[in-house]
Design goal:
The complex is a heterodimer of chains A (602) and B (137). Chain A is of the alpha+beta class. Chain A folds into four domains: 127 residues, Sulfite Reductase Hemoprotein, domain 2 (Alpha-Beta Complex), CATH 3.90.480; 177 residues, Sulfite Reductase Hemoprotein, domain 1, CATH 3.30.413; 101 residues, Sulfite Reductase Hemoprotein, domain 2 (Alpha-Beta Complex); 147 residues, Sulfite Reductase Hemoprotein, domain 1 (2-Layer Sandwich). Helices cover 36% and strands 17% of the residues of chain A. In chain A, strands 6, 7, 8, 9, 10 and 11 form a six-stranded mixed β-sheet that branches. In chain A, strands 17, 18, 19, 20, 21 and 22 form a six-stranded mixed β-sheet that branches. Chain A has a five-stranded antiparallel β-sheet with strand order 1-2-5-4-14. In chain A, helix 1 packs antiparallel against helix 5 and helix 7 packs across helix 9. Chain A is globular and about 65 Å long. Chain A starts with 5 loop residues before the first helix and ends in an 11-residue tail after the last helix. Chain B has a single domain, classed as Alpha-Beta Barrel (TIM Barrel), CATH 3.20.20. The model of chain B has no long low-confidence stretch (mean pLDDT 93). Chain B contains three helices and five strands. Chain B is α/β, with parallel strands linked by helices. In chain B, helix 1 links the parallel strand 3 and strand 4. A five-stranded parallel β-sheet of chain B has the order 1-5-4-3-2, covered by helices on one side. The radius of gyration of chain B is 15 Å and the shape is globular. The chains are: A alpha+beta (602), B alpha/beta (137). The interface between A and B is large, with 44 and 39 residues.
Chain lengths: 602, 137
């Protein structure tokens, strides 16, 4: 993990002090709601349906065990509404059908951040101080600015890696933090960085997606051949009400130019991005509207930054080396690779004797650059908890597991789970037992119940419908692990509104909450892709027809999956079958399960 | 950075060699010869276009005169204004200038280069600003 220097530490503390100053001026009447709003947002503080929501940055997903323990403490001590606030919230949600709102949780988001739902605003500066004590903060986790950078959960350990993206992520994090020119952009601005052949970051769905590539005699390769390192630059992806896949505006940019080039992109956006209509303010609209002219503007601005400004943000080799030094693999004890075969045979034998362990090895354990190690995902998708939620004690267990098995490091995944990146093969069975005791070892990673879901209408003021009960109803119906493994890998994504925090556009099956005359309805879309190998080129799913009422949604899922089972060929995944068979067969199956009374045509 | 009360500010005019630039104009199209002051406008404090204009004026074009922020100018944006190249600001009438100085005192340095300090912190070529930052009346 990146090692904070004195300067870095002081910077985070100064930010906490600045926030306290702003909060105090706000509470004493010197800073109006409107003027305080972007300031608190740029520290991660929203005002939601029942209480403030805090979004803490876990830059490119990395968290230390020390940081996990502080997050646990915040969940336990601060994610606790007053009786009055809770009573009011519970009454409001009971009208929708929610029996009990969860408290005392941390929620992991698709952008590898951590959210809390119940912290009172007058405690917010104390929480920022507590976070700063372990180098955590909420800098630019919200607001119309460059948001916290996301990356591959397997950065630095992936077997298919071209180069480690983490040093670049950290350099980007520092460059974007409190950037004076780019704090009030037309709209939010999200950057993802991937360094592997497999894109685990949904790069094409971002305002800027960066893919590390190598230039081998003018051919830009992702196969790890030796050659000059650089970035393929994608711009203008995004979800929301207008889903757009990013356009590649540069096939190859030398790695040391990335800050200069990003400066050009963001300056062009700051200047030309629409400010007259919130729904048309993202860079995707600009890229779409201007086409080649956008690319030309960026290239012209970049040329001026280089020729007239002297390219001041060219990354020096020295700086890359300095930051990279933080990301050397941790020294781990244990036996060396001569025992790999022996360990493998022990694991195989154990797995044969224990079907659950075998499944866990298949689904939750990923290969590693170092053949002695594995990456292990702790599942935060289990019955009784909202997707991506962890209690204080589960966070503490995760911290303990990170200390015992993963050099004190965990990562937040894009799919809202926690990953342990440095697990020794010979400790896998021990880790599995410990994780299972804490209900963190469900072997469902990438399977149906490993669904993405936003907090939805139980917490979020933007939501049109609740996500958590829909996720729970589907999870309840699909508890049988034999069945889940038979269904195989499938991306089910649930958003409570068109803002698409639950990424419904990119799900093989996407569910979108919509509001019709004050009632919750759900639109189902099929065939979306995040851009992974499994899912194919990034694309938005297509809507199957009029929306469904909540009670119909699990039946729709069942109908879709039954159709898949009927139609699939040997070894074929849901998405592959869908692509081969086509929309009609699946849409018909979905539409056939509408409950008679609720037929509605919108 | 020079802070001006609203009454101390008068609109630019040709005789004073000062001009006003709307925030959708390109400063690179200006003839800056003889110009001593450029006013850049914030219709709303959250409309950040003038930050880029100031940067281009100060850094790209090397403008040495005064760059003045007008409009919805608030205490909490002063530091980033100064870093983007503004040298003067007309505070909105209800702003309390006594909260301003401590905003400048808080951060000893920043990561990225800006209009005042061209190089980022990581670059050995970085030189600290020649004058102390802060506010003056």
């Amino acid at each position: 993990m990146y090692q904070y220097t004195d300067f870095d530490r002081q910077f985070v503390r100064n930010r906490a002090a600045q926030y306290r100053d702003q909060l105090e001026r706000h509470l004493s009447g010197h800073l109006s709601d409107d003027e305080f709003r972007p300031l608190r947002l740029q520290n991660g503080w929203y005002l939601e349906r029942h209480a403030p929501m805090l979004r803490v940055a876990a830059p490119y997903g990395e968290l230390s065990s020390v940081q996990l323990r502080v997050l646990a403490r915040i969940a336990r001590e601060y994610d606790q509404p007053s009786a009055e606030v809770y009573q009011k919230a519970q009454t409001a949600q009971a009208n929708l059908g929610t029996a009990k709102l969860p408290t005392g949780y941390a929620h992991f988001s698709t952008r590898q951040n951590v959210q809390f739902n119940w912290i009172a605003l007058d405690k917010s500066a104390d929480v920022m101080d507590l976070l700063a004590s372990v180098n955590l903060h909420g800098i630019q986790t919200s607001g119309s600015c460059i948001r916290s950078i996301t990356s591959d959960e397997r950065a630095g350990i992936a077997v298919d890696e071209i180069a480690d993206p983490r040093p670049f992520c950290e350099i980007l994090r520092q460059w974007s933090a409190l950037h004076p020119e780019f704090a009030f952009l037309p709209r939010k601005f999200k950057i993802a960085v991937s360094g592997a052949r497999e894109d685990r970051t949904a790069a094409a769905w971002h305002d800027v997606g960066l893919r590390l590539v190598r230039d081998v005699d003018g051919v830009y390769s992702e196969d790890g051949s030796p050659g000059m390192l650089g970035f393929r630059v994608l711009v203008g992806g995004g979800m929301g009400r207008t889903p757009v896949i990013a356009t590649t505006i540069r096939d190859f940019l030398p790695w040391n130019q990335i800050l200069n080039y990003l400066e050009a992109i963001v300056r062009v956006y700051n200047r030309w991005g629409r400010r007259d209509n919130l729904h048309k303010a993202r860079i995707k609209i600009l890229v779409k509207a201007e086409g080649q002219r956008f690319t030309d503007e960026v290239e012209a601005e970049y040329a001026q930054i280089v020729e007239l400004d002297g390219a001041p943000h060219t990354i020096t080799q020295q700086e890359l080396d300095r930051v990279s030094a933080s990301f050397v693999p941790p020294a781990l004890g244990g036996k060396k690779s001569d025992s790999v075969l022996k360990v493998a045979s022990i694991l195989r034998a154990t797995a044969e004797n224990h079907v659950e362990f075998g499944r866990w090895l298949t689904q939750n354990v990923a290969p590693h650059k170092n053949p002695d190690l594995r990456a292990v995902t702790l599942s935060l998708k289990r019955l009784g908890h909202a997707p991506g939620d962890a209690t204080a004690s589960q966070l503490e267990t995760a911290a303990e597991l990170a200390d015992r098995f993963s050099a004190g490091e965990a990562r937040v995944t894009h799919d809202q789970n926690l990953l342990l990146p440095w697990v020794r093969c010979d400790q896998l069975s021990e880790l599995w037992r410990a994780a299972r005791n804490a209900s963190l070892a469900r072997s469902n990673i990438h399977l149906l119940s490993d669904m993405i879901a936003c907090p939805g209408g139980d917490f979020c003021s933007l939501a049109n419908a609740r996500s958590i009960p829909i996720a729970a109803a589907i999870a309840e119906r699909y508890q049988d692990m034999d069945e889940l493994h038979d269904l195989g890998e499938i991306d089910l994504h649930i958003s409570g509104c068109i803002n698409s925090c639950g990424h419904h556009h990119s799900g093989h099956v996407g569910i979108l909450g919509v509001d019709k005359d004050g009632q919750e309805w759900y639109q189902v879309s099929l065939g979306g892709s995040d851009g992974s190998t499994l899912s194919g080129a990034a694309i938005a799913g297509k809507v199957v027809g009029p929306s469904f009422e909540a009670a119909e949604v699990p039946d729709v899922i069942e109908a879709l999956l039954d159709t898949y089972r009927e139609e699939r060929r040997s070894g074929e995944t849901f998405i592959a079958t869908f692509r081969r068979v086509g929309m009609n067969v699946f849409a018909q199956a979905a539409n056939a399960v509408r409950h008679m009374a609720s037929t509605e045509f919108a | 950075m020079k802070l001006l009360a609203a009454h101390a500010h008068s609109a630019p005019c040709e005789s004073q060699n000062s001009i006003q630039l709307s925030n959708d104009s390109d400063p690179r199209a200006l003839d800056l010869e003889k110009i001593e002051r450029v006013d850049l406008h914030f219709p709303k404090f959250s409309d950040g276009r003038a930050f880029s204009q100031a940067f281009l004026l100060r850094r790209r074009l090397g403008f040495k005169g005064e760059i003045r922020a007008t409009g919805d100018v608030l205490i909490d944006q002063l530091v980033q204004m100064q870093r983007s190249g503004f040298s003067a600001a007309v505070l909105r009438a209800d702003q309390n200038a006594k909260f301003a100085q401590r905003q400048f005192d808080r951060y000893p340095a920043f990561y990225q280069g800006d209009a005042v300090v061209a190089h980022p912190k990581f670059n050995p070529a970085r030189t600290p600003p020649s004058t102390n930052t802060g506010v003056s009346a």
